[in-house]
Every structure is written in C-alpha cells, then in structure tokens.
Amino acid sequence: MRVRHLACALLLIAAPAFAADEDAVPRITDVTTIEARVQGCVTCHGQQGQGTDNGYFPRIAGKPAGYLYNQLVAFRDGTRRYAPMNYLVAYLPDSYLKEMAQFYARQRPPFAPKEAPKGDAALIERGKAIVTAGDGAKQLPACVACHGAGLTGMEPGVPGLVGLRPTYVAAQLTRWRTGERRAADPDCMKRIAMRLTERDVAAVAAYMALQDPPKDASPEAANFVRMPMACGSQR
Amino acid sequence: MKRAIALVVIVVVVIAGVFAWKSTHQGYLPVDPKNASAPPNPTTQVIQRGEYLARAGDCVACHTEPTGKLFAGGRAMATPFGAIYVPNITPDDETGIGLWTADDFYRMMHTGLSRDGTLLYPAMPFAQYTKVTRADCDAIFAYLQSLAPVKQKNKPHELRFPFNKRELLLGWRTLYFKEGEYQNDPAQSAQWNRGAYLVEGLGHCTMCHTAINALGGSKESKEFEGGMIPNQNWYAPSLTSNREGGLGDWSLKDIGDLLQVGISMRATVYGPMAEVTYNSLQYMTDEDTAAMAVYLKSLPKKDAEPPPTDAAKLVQPAVMERGRQVYEKQCVMCHHSEGRGYPPEFPPLAGNPSITMATPVNPIRIVLNGGYPPGTRKNPRPHGMPPFAHILNDDEVAAVVTYIRVAWKNAGTPVQAAQVSDLRKLLPE
After folding, report:
1. For B331, which DSSP code?
2. Which CATH number does the domain housing residue B357 bear?
3. Considering only CB atoms, which chain B residues are within 8 Å of A54?
C-alpha cells in the first residue's frame, strides 16, 4: 500500500472545524484515500460537504447516499443540468460515483451559522404551514411528511433540506416548478412543485432558513412513514 | 439410513438451488471467452473483433446520444458551418443500416459515399477510416448488424448556405481527401506499422491534432502539429513539437498510460481527450496501446513556431509574486512547491507540455473549471481538480497561470486577464 504524507498536511490539521474559506482549499494527507480523490469537489462543497460561503452551492454532507448517487448519475448523463457539474463527472463510472455518494452521506460536519431572517411574519407563517402541515386546499403535502420531521431526509432517495441556504432552496424549487429539474417517475416532487406559487417558494425557503439543525442530522430510515405520494426515487 | 436422508436433503437443496438460480437468471448468459469450454465459433469471433475495432474507432462518441440508445444517432454535432445530426447506425431496416451490405459499408468507410451515393460530410472521419482494411470494416459491420435494431429516424442537418450544398464536398474531397487503405512501411517494425494503422485510421487522431482551416480541412504537411478544436474551445496539442504534446522524450510506458489509463507520470488527459480515453482507448489491449505509443513517439520533430523569445517570456515581478501567492494557497498541496506534482495521481506542472504550449487556453480552462480524468479500467477512481472560477478573479487566474508557465524553467509566456475573461464566458464542457 502506498501512503504518502504530504508536506502541507500538518499545517492544515490545526484549522477550525468550520472555516468556510480554508475549507474550500484542497487538502490531502494520503493520496490513496477517498478524501484525496474527491478534492475536485471541495472548492464548492467544502472538505466534508458542509458547503461554502457561496449560497448557490449546497451542503451535501449527510444526505442519503441514494439521493446523492442519483444526482451524480443525472449530472453525468445530462438529465440534471448544471454545466460545471456535468463537465466534472462526465467520464466517471457508476461504481465510483456511488463511492463518492457514500462518502458524503457519512459526513456529519457542523452546520454553518444561520443567515439573517428574510421576509415578513406573514411570509414566514406561510412557510411554516407548508413545511409542517401542507395545504389541504391545494393537495399539497407537508415537506416533513417525506423529508423527515427534522428535515434530514429519508433513505434512500429523499434529500435532507436542513442546512441548505435559502437561495439554493428557492432556486431548486423554481427549477422543479419550471420542469427543468425532474426525478425518476412517478415524479412526486414535480407534482408538488407545480402546486407552489412563487410566493410559496419564497415562504418555504425563508422558513427553512430559520430552523435549527437537529442534534442527529441522519436521514430517517426507509419507509419509516407512509409517504403521501408515490416517488420513483424511493423504489 | 441417516446417510440416505442426508443424501435426499442434499439433492433437494441442489434442485431447489438450481430452480432459484434459473428463475433469477432468465435468458442467455454473457459468454466469457476465458471460461467457455469450446472456442467461440467464427461468427462470434468476427463480431467480438468488430466490437473491439468499433471501440478503436470511437463510433459511440458521435453515434449515441448521452442518454440515448446505443448507436441510434440523433446527436447534434456543432460545427463552424452549423449543426450536423449524426445518423442511426443500428441495423433497423427503415431508419438504420439494416438493409446495407458489407460492400455498402466498406464503400462508405473507404470512400465517404453513403449507400445511396450521397457524399458524406467530413464530420464522419472517412479521410482517416479510408485506411481501414476490408477485413476490419467487415468485422465492424458484422458487429453493428448483431446489435438490437432501434427505430429512430435521422434528423436533417442544419447547415448554413452554402455548406448545405453537398456538391461543394467534391471540392473539399479534391483538396483534402486521399482514398486508400493503410500501406505497411517495410522499413519499420510490425509493431510500428500496427500503431500507425490504428492512429492514422480508426483512431482518427489527426481529426483534432492537426489544425483545421476555414474550409474544415487539414493539410497533410501539418499532420499532428496541433490545432484548436472547432466549437469546443480546447486546444489539441501538437504531437510533434517537444514544447507541446511532443512525445520525443517520453517513455513508451508513459505514452501508453496516458492513452489507455488516462493518467501517467508525465501528464493527465482532460477535456475532449478524456472522452476519447473513456469511450475508446481504455479498451485497447496492452499490445495495441504499446504499438500506438511506438508510432507516436517516432513522429518527426517539427515545431510549427519558433520557441518564444526572452522578451516574450518577460513577466512583471508583481504579477509573478501574485501568481506565486495564489499557487502557494490553492495549488501547492497537490502540485508540489516545485511543480513536481505527486504523479500519477496529481500531474506535474514543471515540464508538462499542457502548461507551456503556445496557446494558454487549456491551462486557463483547467484552472477555471477544474476537471476529472476519465474513470478507466486501470484507474476507475481518478483524482480530481476543483474549479476555481468562483474563487479567483481574472487577474488572479492570469497571474497563477503565468506563474506555472514560467516557473521551474517552464518555457511558456505570460497570459492576460482579458484571455481569462473570454474563457470564463464559455460553459464548461
């Protein structure tokens, strides 16, 4: 086994656990490890997948491996479009994408400090209603019904939403609404997003940003609860 | 008695096992040539050889859409003259090549004439495939005919006038097309000839590694001297110049590794070449890879341009210092303070021709967009480089690319922030 300790390692070990800037700099101690192999991800997603200062790059740490794998495959095959990601993973085999997904699913880095609340009380109240109770009049299930009581997601394919920045949540919900983002059929998230208004999107993003992350950020077990809609990515 | 019961139990378990196995393994099992008791029959041998050769020709790269059915075509190829839609080459009778004969297929490969006599656009590399032997064309044809037919109509090209007039291709063919199978050079070894046959023919390497002029042609005299790839904005380096991708001082192992594995002790493939290694070269046998390396290493040394003058290499001390600072913060942990890298996982920058080639397009794009080498059979878990487009501004990218082009005795020239700004506007691909 080849183990190479690189000169810079000692310097960086002392870095604090959450330092967004330093955490976005490549760092390797042993070239054979998965950590060394995923340095291609760190300037956007951070060393442990906790995200960086940039609100458009999501936290990926602790999301279910099945979800992360589905996204990597979709980026590679072009069914989810974001040019920088499409380019990076274009020529990587399934087995490796799965390993990357499992690595980030295992990470539990600290959460970034919450952003200052945006939006008035009525907007946040609307967000709370959608997230925790849904909207029966619009056949809109509560976010927590699938994404978990702590919004930590559900194995194997429902992503955690906790720790995502409001810019990212709003941008993705808008992509679902316009049909640009989609998932395996039956595409439950598309059905849900089509029922959201622009204001609903802003409300959900604003409310989620105010929530404290739970102590245990692990996703809920598969089919722990009966989901209100059939989702292809849970099969 | 106990023994008899045990025997019955074993028999029952085995039978149940066989049934369980059968019910989960419907249909034919793939033939593993190593485990097959009898050698595959001649038809199987030809089809397997055809599959290998189709990979050597990288047919899949153009004739399959990213999420489409294998070889069903439909993919739009951007060219400077408009979009070309690649045809269906599955054996469907109506929309594919199901009714073609081996003669039709050979004529198409050899002369660039379709079955109905239409002149093919040179996006199909028939100027290279003309060198492929009849036997190899027949094998590829047998392989394509053995695939599942897909009914998918070809889309008409969207070429601008006058390029939509196929008669113009007669002129192009006069200038740039020389028909003829590869002829062995008796002065060279069998290995060299095999390499030349693969590189010049199915590999169609000159499609990118020779400059393409305004008419979409490439001159034989400029062969392997490098050129910008139209519409992709990557530079395919010269394979003859020692300053660029020139392979004169590379070991045969490093050349072969770069092609087949995707990484080597000298450099790593990226951009459009990553696709070639992923879809094609990783499947080449070690023997064929070595043959290509022998041939590529033997290409005559010729530099299209003289090396840069000392004046052209001058860098302002402030730019150099800024570049060094960026390098120390962002790059040094993988590429080493002296640019030696930690090869083959992290490529060296000192003495790496990709860094110093005359046009700085490639190193600028790599700094902006990062990159992963292709995951290959011999390197399924490659190490990647992250994008820096969102972290470094144009001046910082220009400074750090300038730094790596002139530090450690690298003989490159400085780059300007305006060049970075132009490349930043392009989508990564």
Report:
1. I
2. 1.10.760.10
3. 390
| pTM for the structure as a whole | 0.88
Contact A39 B428 (CB under 8 A): no
Cα distance between residue B404 and residue B367, in whole Å: 11
Give the pair of three-digit tokens for residue B236. 């395919």
- Of B176, B203, B229, the last residue of a domain is B176
Give me the number of domains chain B comprises: 3
B235-236 and B82-85 as β-strands: parallel, antiparallel, unpaired?
A: unpaired
Same domain, A225 and A175: yes
Q: By the CB < 8 Å criterion, does A80 face chain B?
A: no
Give, for B76, the enclosing helix (H) or strand (E). strand B76-79
Q: Take residue B395 and report the two structure tokens written for it.
A: 């001046």
B162 and B194 belong to one structural domain: no
Domain containing residue A15: CATH number: 1.10.760.10
What is the predicted pLDDT for the residue at A67? 97
Measure the CA angle with vertex B280, ends B228 and A103; round to 5°: 95
The answer on A48 and A126 residing in a single domain is no
What's the domain range around B211? 190-297
Interfacial residues of B (vs A; Cβ cutoff 8 Å): 66-67, 274-275, 277-278, 329-334, 337, 342, 345-346, 369-375, 380-391, 427-429
Where does a domain end: A106, A136, A153?
A: A106
Contact A86 B387 (CB under 8 A): no
Are B204 and B108 part of one and the same domain?
A: no
Average pLDDT by consecutive 10-residue portion of chain B (429 residues)? 52 46 43 58 91 97 91 90 93 96 96 93 94 97 96 92 85 88 97 97 90 66 74 82 68 96 96 96 98 93 75 89 96 95 96 90 96 98 97 97 95 94 89
DSSP H helices in chain A: 9-13, 34-37, 42-45, 65-77, 83-88, 94-106, 121-132, 144-147, 166-177, 188-194, 198-209
Query: Tell me, what's the ipTM?
Result: 0.88
Report the domain count for chain A.
2
Q: Which residue has the tokens 């007669």?
A: B170
Q: Check whether residue B158 and residue B49 sit in a common domain.
A: yes
pLDDT, tens only, B312-334? 888 999 999 999 999 999 999 99
* B17 inside domain: no
Instruction: Please judge whether A91 and B337 are an interchain contact, meaning their C-beta atoms are less than 8 angstroms apart.
Output: no
What is the domain range of residue A223? 121-234
